[in-house]
Design a protein that fits this description.
Order of helices and strands of chain A: EHEHEEHHHHHH
Strand order of the largest sheet of chain A: 2-1-3-4
Oligomer: homodimer
CATH class of the largest domain in chain A: Mainly Alpha
CATH architecture of the largest domain in chain A: Up-down Bundle
Structural class of chain A: alpha+beta
Largest sheet of chain A: 4 strands, mixed
Helix content of chain A: 55-70%
Distance between the termini of chain A: 25 Å
Shape of chain A: globular
Chain lengths: 215, 215
């Protein structure tokens, strides 16, 4: 039996399927070839056990023997320490992966999440606040386009967990066609999501939630 | 001469002083008692060397011998590996610090930054987008209040880099009185910023930018 247990919701509505954050952890586990199993926690009724494992009442969390980690970004960095498939093991490669992982989680995700949330909720987008977020997102994507225009992957000329996370952050914007003005970002996302490990992770998440519809 | 070099802007306008992200790195370096020196990069004229070190044209970055790290969160995790003053060295303590560092950078900072940005820019706050961010921030602070109401520090009963970062993320909201409904968060922030290492870091940042006014 595997020591790695990934916990996600038992079910979610149609709209977020394919974007729930267990996907990026499944993807990393598949890239690394680490054995794991998936467990479920109720989406509708989040009790004290849920908040004890994940203080914001969200998913995923990962149990690794007697350790529990929450926040998908933390889980990815923890897994990267276990597998050279996710991160080069030399000091420079590690420092660059760490920098880009945090860039994806903070500098890039900061405009991506509100931008996507506004669209997800069908807001009009004419308010000055909405325009400020549009501008913030464009500034970040302009810089990412400049970085990605002449490199295939972010660090060390090879795929790492930094690419995995940056791609998954960009997916939420791409869903609402937010990468249309940024060709290098779009091409990068297409390269990342063409990987068999992404395809398996996506298929498995969709099947997990579909199984709950039937049950 | 120190191997650790922290680079920040040579000058910034009055308003962001005390909140520029080199502060959290100075704070960590002071807590850890690691020797370092501070260098400056132009605020007004950001050239290719700046973008080579920090792809978004921001600050800070840290040079550690022949390594360069950007993103303050990445720098803090890198420093935590060097110093037990910043992170317990056992596996459980490390996993919990990592989880809470990412929680601060992503789950908590995600609503804090747009909420603060809107106020920084003097936006009216009546748009549905503004109200959605208000609600998002409240949800996160409600959870942080529940966590902090019965613990002094986030991990292992002692101050760690997770507290340092969570406090610095909350400072931007506190500046606009955004913690007034969350007593446990406010008390936590007061405890964290009463530490001599914070006070020195804050004083040093203010003096750094004030020196540029005179120059």
């Amino acid at each position: 039996m595997s020591d790695l247990i990934l916990t996600t919701y038992d079910w979610v509505p149609e709209m977020p399927r394919g974007l729930v954050r267990d996907l990026r952890v499944r993807w990393a586990l598949e890239e690394a070839g680490l054995p794991y199993r998936v467990e479920s926690t109720p989406f509708r009724d989040r009790g004290p056990e849920h908040f004890a494992a994940q203080p914001f009442g969200q998913v995923p969390w990962l149990t690794d023997g007697d350790l529990t980690l929450f926040e998908s970004g933390a889980i990815l960095l923890h897994l990267a320490d276990k597998s050279p498939a996710l991160m080069p093991q030399d000091a420079r490669g590690r420092a660059e992966v760490l920098s880009w992982v945090i860039a994806a989680l903070n500098s890039v995700d900061l405009p991506c999440q509100p931008w996507s949330l506004f669209r997800f909720m069908g807001l009009p987008g004419e308010a000055p606040e909405a325009k400020m977020i549009d501008k913030f997102l464009k500034a970040r994507l302009d810089r990412m386009d400049a970085v990605l225009v002449d490199r295939e992957w972010l660090v060390a000329g090879r795929f790492t967990v930094a690419d995995l996370l940056m791609a998954d952050v960009m997916r939420q914007v791409d869903r609402f066609d937010g990468l249309s003005g940024h060709a290098a970002c779009r091409d990068f996302l297409a390269r990342a999501t063409a990987r068999p490990a992404f395809e398996k992770a996506h298929r498995d998440q969709m099947a997990h939630f579909a199984a709950a519809d039937v049950a």
